[in-house]
Design goal:
7 helices, seven-stranded antiparallel sheet, 36% strand, alpha+beta, Chorismate lyase, single chain
């Protein structure tokens, strides 16, 4: 009897995620991988964990968030989108993200809810009762390029932090993520 060798865990490739929507990645930002100990405390609380960012940013901001889809790529097996999350309380942008979903690991009703583009991914998975596990892959120091600066309303070169992560759905590596939070000073100023 032949046994199937264990599958290598999916590690999101930052460059591959960026190439879904950008020629040179620097159009969005410059990325430098960092360890959790090198991430400032406020950013670490937002990023250095194995939880859904939807839940984390909603708790941090004390407000539910809405998703704004900026662009998408769809193939028969995968769906990717470039998004912003914004607080419902004042419409302030709190996160930029790129996600790629392998629909082979999700049921059709979940796929339809994701493709409707009206609810953040984390909320869809939670409300759909999908058995999931979020796995942090890497933390990133992010110097905003022209596009990220414009989306966040900050100066190009301003530093913030982000992460890459995988969401396993029903035990399978279904979602690859890049998530970048708006600079803390920007968020706190917007919340005042």
């Amino acid at each position: 009897m032949l046994e199937t060798p264990p599958r290598e865990p999916l590690t999101p490739d930052l460059e591959a995620l960026l190439r879904l929507f950008y020629g040179p990645p620097r159009a969005l930002a410059a990325f430098h991988r960092v360890e959790a100990a090198d991430v400032p405390a406020g950013y670490a609380a937002l990023l250095a964990h194995d939880e859904h960012m939807t839940v984390t940013v909603e708790q941090y901001h004390g407000s539910p968030v809405d998703v704004r889809v900026l662009d998408r790529r769809v193939t028969p097996s995968h769906y990717a989108r470039k998004i912003l999350l914004a607080r419902q309380s004042d419409d302030a942008v709190v996160q930029f993200g790129i996600m790629r979903v392998n629909f082979a690991y999700l049921e059709a009703p979940v796929r339809r809810r994701i493709e409707a583009e009206d609810t953040p991914l984390g909320r869809v998975l939670i409300e759909s009762g999908v058995l999931r596990r979020v796995r942090l892959a890497a933390l990133w120091r992010v110097a905003a390029g022209a596009e990220l600066a414009a989306l966040f309303g900050i100066a190009p070169g301003m530093v913030t932090y982000g992460r890459t992560a995988v969401i396993e759905c029903n035990g399978e590596p279904a979602v690859e993520l890049l998530e970048i939070v708006t600079p803390l000073a920007q968020r706190e100023g917007a919340a005042s």
